[in-house]
Write a structure and sequence with these properties.
Largest sheet: none
Helix content: over 70%
Structural class: mainly alpha
Number of domains: 1
Distance between the termini: 31 Å
Radius of gyration: 20 Å
């Protein structure tokens, strides 16, 4: 059960960042979903016949685009663009490192965890807040994308149902990433160290996702990257729900959120 006092405290700390990042992802998706598909005719000609260009786009979208090109090729860029991923990850870093690493760093953790607050209540509150914030962020992402596509007025673009499935896949990746950052925060004594670790993990995943199509040694480790299980292009093309990817992402989220809760319940927390 969620502690109302703890939940209100978390909401006050998160609300401004949630508002800013929600407006950011919504505005970016609206502009990208409107502008990118309109450029399809300009990039689907001789330029796309160059193997190097196809490799670059394959690295960006995460799958081999091959020769079967359609407007969804640029449509998917709005879902996998580094700006969107960085905005979501930055929000998670700011949110998930607040507790307990941020409280320990500020020296206020003794007050936060004083009686009658239990550590499992703190975990439940942070989990619920992170999930609800993810629902808001992914909903604004979907709304901006659908609105931008409707303004583009291209009948060849995928429908809202396909985009909703992509948003669900994005939310599953968000939950998994949040679990990793929560675990890092629970293991850290300093918020700066937790933030640096989160940034390092994000950059490593982006690097592996981009270089995997070019270098086989790196591609062997792509299964460790969350982006390996977030593939909007096949969804936009077929509308099929990627159950396997969703299960993996949810499982990663459950494992790391649970591991963080265990560490939080057992560690000796003291101000430093």
């Amino acid at each position: 059960m969620v502690n109302p006092g703890l939940f209100y405290k978390s909401f006050r700390e998160v609300r401004m960042g949630l508002l800013v990042f929600s407006l950011g992802v919504g505005a970016f998706e609206l502009l990208a979903a409107y502008a990118l598909p309109t450029q399809f005719a300009q990039v689907s000609g001789p330029l796309m016949q160059l193997e190097f260009v196809r490799h670059i786009i394959s690295a960006l979208v995460g799958v081999d685009v091959g020769q079967n090109l359609g407007p969804e090729l640029l449509e998917v860029v709005a879902w996998v663009h580094p700006i969107l991923l960085v905005l979501l990850w930055a929000f998670l870093i700011a949110t998930c490192t607040r507790v307990p690493a941020g409280e320990v760093d500020r020296g206020s953790v003794d007050l936060l965890l004083g009686l009658p607050v239990a550590r499992h209540e703190l975990f439940t509150c942070e989990l619920v807040m992170c999930v609800l914030a993810g629902v808001v962020l992914c909903s604004l992402t979907l709304a901006g994308n659908v609105l931008g596509a409707s303004l583009a007025d291209n009948e060849r673009l995928s429908g809202p149902a396909h985009r909703a499935i992509v948003a669900i896949n994005l939310f599953a990746m968000y939950v998994a990433a949040g679990g990793i950052l929560w675990f890092v925060s629970c293991c850290s004594q300093r918020r700066g160290r937790a933030v640096a670790t989160g940034l390092a993990v994000m950059l490593a995943m982006l690097l592996v996702n981009f270089l995997a199509p070019f270098f086989r040694p790196i591609s062997q480790f792509s299964f460790l990257c969350l982006l390996e299980y977030y593939r909007p292009l096949p969804i936009l093309r077929s509308g099929t729900v990627p159950w396997g990817n969703l299960v993996v992402l949810v499982a990663v989220g459950v494992v790391f959120w649970g591991a963080g809760a265990i560490v939080l319940s057992r560690r000796d927390i003291r101000t430093v």
